[in-house]
Amino acid sequence: MKKNDLILAVLVTFIWGINFSVIKLGLASLDPFILSGLRFLFCAIPLVFFIKRPQVHLKYIISYGLLFGVGLWGIVSLGIYFGISAGMASLVLQMSIFFTVILASIMLNETIDISKKLAFAIALLGLTLIITVTDGSVTIIGLILVLIAAVSMSFTNIIIKKAGTKNVFSFMVWASLFSPIPLFILGYITQGNIVFTDFFENLDNIAIFSIVFQVYPTTLFGYWIWNSLLHKYPASSVAPTALLVPIFGLLGSYLIFGEEIGFIKILASFIIISALIVNLYGNRIFIKNYEGV
């Protein structure tokens, strides 16, 4: 990867990592579903009027919008609202990679080789360590919600693969059109009409910053750059930089909220990131060792 492109890849992972803390900033003023709904409302509008709809079946666009907007980021925001720290949320969400492997095996008949099984076992060990964290940065309900979000993220990965679209930016803009209304309805169901009647009273500068950051740097810019790099280089060259997301997520939570990063968190992070590395490169290593025997 060229130097400038590598810098862009690292910048995107930095933005995605910090975004978890930015979400938490917005939650100080707004309901999690309303905050997420506004994110995807402005991801879709006004761009949807200027960008041609991708040539894929509408069912893929709608299902992606519901899972990405509601099942993934709506639930992540709810998990952070219910007590899991921004840093821990960024780490736990990486479990989506392993859920994707399992779903791909079930829905796409892809083979789960021994390296992926080993990676999943290692990741579960890291997840077990996270459950033992007692500094107040992990709650059971928050952890469960982020794991649900990770499952939703794995489904979005399968949808992208089945849709076969090459214009992922257009796909995401149009899919975002189907996220806000369900999120606003969930906000109303869980909190009542106060989420709307008190909206402008609660909409302070920090909340506005949170929305703008989630819409433009995180979603539109981040996914545009990331998918451009995936088209330009082999996935094996781009994907490893995603390992930086939980590192930046923990760092952002530490700097912005003073989240304590003790030995257990460092060890859990190391184990889960090691599992991601095994998932990426394990098969290559096993084949190399087998050929060398």
Q: Helicity level, as a percent range?
A: over 70%
Structural class: mainly alpha
Give, in order, the helices and strands.
HHHHHHHHHHHHHHH
Model regions low in confidence, pLDDT < 50 over at least 5 residues: none
Give the rounded overall mean pLDDT. Answer: 89
Tell how many strands the DSSP assignment holds.
0
The number of domains is 1
Oligomer: single chain
Number of helical regions: 15
Work out the strand percent.
Answer: under 5%
**What can be said about the biggest beta sheet?**
none
Radius of gyration: 19 Å
Query: What form results from the Cα inertia axes?
Result: globular
* End-to-end separation: 32 Å
What does this structure look like?
It is a single chain. This protein is mainly α. It has one domain. It is 78% helix and 0% strand. Helix 3 crosses helix 8, helix 4 packs antiparallel against helix 14 and helix 8 packs antiparallel against helix 12. The mean pLDDT is 89.
